[in-house]
Write a structure and sequence with these properties.
rRNA_Ade_diMease-like_C; two-stranded antiparallel sheet; 10 helices; about 35% helix; Ribosomal RNA small subunit methyltransferase A; elongated; S-adenosyl-L-methionine; 2 domains; rRNA (adenine-N6,N6-)-dimethyltransferase activity; seven-stranded mixed beta sheet; Rossmann fold; alpha/beta; Helicase, Ruva Protein, domain 3
């Protein structure tokens, strides 16, 4: 049976062997690693990961691909195929995985990264092929920093490894892609990750406006942030200082006047 990529699932099969090799090399997989692969497809990346890793957990959502995937992996003993939606995956798979790799459907990039980083069981690294524009948002620095770059920077260091042209896929997507690698810290800089996410969303809600439209003057002064600064101009350290100052002031003022330190 001929396999036809499903547009509804955002399927663009990676067919360029050199890009497969670049993705696997960028993940820095070793025999001591258990790798969770997202979007295993027909097994092009899975085979290469299996040669290097102790074990590969190959997750594929499309049940129509599973027979072909298993056929292509026949005889390879260190791969477990899981037919599941990675966004609903049993947390035990994350617990056992030291690295997460994949050429993922572009529409799940942000929710998947948030799921992984909010998880109690974070890997040592994440290496994905994503849309180039999204990779640039993840790896952005001032004066072009984004919500996503600051959120990810709380957990690790992100860098773009390589830009990939549409011809590496079948069918060809309409946009360029990129390999992005995120090396995670042993623990996040701010440990209450859900509060940090809400805080950053608040700060970047009006990215073109000066920060005094989003935060009280006292909060900015206490963080040594100029009120005329715009969100994209702040460093990751600036955002952490602003977050900690806001938490400090909110805790101090909670019994006195509630939490009226956020300007909506």
């Amino acid at each position: 049976m001929e396999l036809r990529p499903k547009r509804s699932l955002g399927q663009n099969f990676l067919v360029d062997k050199s890009v497969v090799e670049d993705l696997v090399k960028s993940s820095q997989v070793k025999k001591t690693d258990t790798v969770l692969e997202v979007g295993a497809g027909t097994g092009a990346v899975t085979k290469n990961l299996a040669r290097l890793a102790g074990k590969v957990i190959a997750v594929e959502f499309d049940s129509d691909l599973i027979p072909t995937l298993k056929t292509h992996l026949r005889g390879i003993k260190n791969v477990e195929v899981v037919n599941a939606d990675v966004l609903d995956l049993d947390p035990e798979y994350f617990r056992s995985s030291s690295k997460i790799v994949g050429a993922i459907p572009y529409q799940i990039t942000s929710p998947l990264i948030h799921k992984i980083l909010h998880s109690q069981f974070r890997p040592k690294s994440i290496t994905f092929i994503v849309q180039k524009e999204v990779a640039e948002k993840i790896a952005a620095t001032p004066p072009d920093a984004t919500y996503l770059s600051n959120f990810v920077a709380n957990f690790g260091e992100a860098r773009i490894i390589k830009v990939i042209k549409p011809g590496a896929f079948s069918p060809q997507p309409k946009v360029d892609s990129a390999i992005i690698h995120i090396e995670l810290y042993p623990k996040p800089k701010v440990e209450d990750t859900l509060k940090l996410e809400k805080f950053l969303h608040h700060g970047f809600a009006q990215p073109r406006k000066m920060l005094h439209h989003r935060f009280e003057a006292g909060i900015l002064a206490g963080s040594k942030i100029p009120p005329q600064a715009r969100p994209a101009h702040l460093s990751k350290e600036d955002w952490r200082n602003l977050y900690r100052e806001l938490v400090r002031v909110k805790e101090r003022s909670k019994t006195r006047r509630g939490d009226g330190t956020w300007r909506n």
